[in-house]
Amino acid sequence: MNEQQRARLQERYPAWHIRRPQGMGCLVATRLGRPLTEKEIYYGLCATLVEDTYDLLSAALAEQRKIEDAL
Questions:
Q1: Rounded to whole angstroms, how far apart are CA atoms 70 and 24?
Q2: Residue among 65, 45, 54 at smallest CA distance from 3
Q3: Which pTM was predicted?
């Protein structure tokens, strides 16, 4: 993931902190704000997402939004 891709995802998902940890090959998105409730976790929301590619992280973030919208 290059900086433009990261910025694009960050703009699309402002409730998440998106980064590539130094020295690691994965991408990490951490939810900002309040802790998740038990109900939210039960329905599949995650506090942190770790994926290997930009496309996988983008898809995981889209799925999180879909779950949020359904709750």
A1: 33
A2: 54
A3: 0.91
